[in-house]
Amino acid sequence: MNMAVDGTKGSHRTKKAVVLLSGGLDSTTVCGIAASENHEIYALSFDYGQTLKRELFYAKKIAAHFRVVDHKIFQIDLAKIGGSALTDDLIEIPLDRKEDDMRDIPLSYVPARNTIFLSIALGWAEVLGADSIYIGVNAVDYSGYPDCRPGYIDAYQKMANLATRRGVEGDPVIIKTPLLHMKKSEIIRLGHELGVPYQYTWSCYSDSEWPCGRCDSCVLRKKGFHEAGLVDPALVE
């Protein structure tokens, strides 16, 4: 990896990639990986009816940092079907869960979210002529979501190969999941080596001014930085 993640150095980019960019730590890391691999980056974020709109503010900052070619914020209101603490004010966000409990699917799971996001990314990638879609799913230090597991990604890739013109013609768009089997600390160390701007990321499920420190995402992030031996720059005033 011989390129600064702000896109200012290294060889000329020739490959296009769609990067699903939530504004969180994992998606920002995969954006850094895509940049380091000399891709032209097309970032895709979603205003999907989530209660935490703050993440979209950070997604814009990250897209600007990486100097992406285009950053689309796609609107789709999953709050209309509800079923998640992230889209329904009447469902409380799970707090203070023990790590052993994080293999159970929590109330913060948004039904079919990654399937919807990947499908829109797949359509855009085919239109762009992009070779790949980067998504920051992780099946090691994660909250138990079914659409972050290896079996799901494998099945989606098979479906994408059958569902697109490029796929049936033998030139499929590849779903890339570089973080899938990594611990959070390993992700953070890699991002640190690449110069990923973690100060611009938001992981908390709360939409408050400061991370709650109690939701699954906050707990896993804190653990990751501690095990990586690094200070979380988002918590430095």
Task: Describe the protein in words.
The chain is an alpha/beta fold and 237 residues long. It is built from 7 helices and 5 strands, in the order βαβαβαβααβαα. The protein has a single domain (15-232), classed as HUPs (Rossmann fold, 3-Layer(aba) Sandwich), CATH 3.40.50. The longest helix is centred in the middle third of the chain and has 16 residues, at 113-128. The protein starts with 14 loop residues before the first strand and ends in a 9-residue tail after the last helix. The model is unreliable at 1-11 (pLDDT under 50).
Low-confidence stretches: 1-11
Overall structural domain count: 1
Helix content: 25-40%
Shape by Cα distribution: globular
In DSSP terms, counting alpha (H) and pi (I) runs of 4 or more, how many helices? 7
**Order of strands across the main sheet:** 3-2-1-4-5
Structural class: alpha/beta
**CATH third-level topology:** Rossmann fold
- Give the DSSP E fraction (strand runs of 2 or more residues): 5-15%
H/E topology pattern: EHEHEHEHHEHH
Sheet having the most strands: 5 strands, parallel
Based on DSSP secondary structure assignment, what is the total number of beta strands? 5
The CATH class name reads Alpha Beta
Q: What is the radius of gyration computed over CA atoms, rounded to a whole number of angstroms?
A: 17 Å
Q: Report the mean per-residue pLDDT as an integer.
A: 92
N/C terminus separation = 31 Å
Q: CATH superfamily assignment?
A: HUPs
CATH architecture: 3-Layer(aba) Sandwich
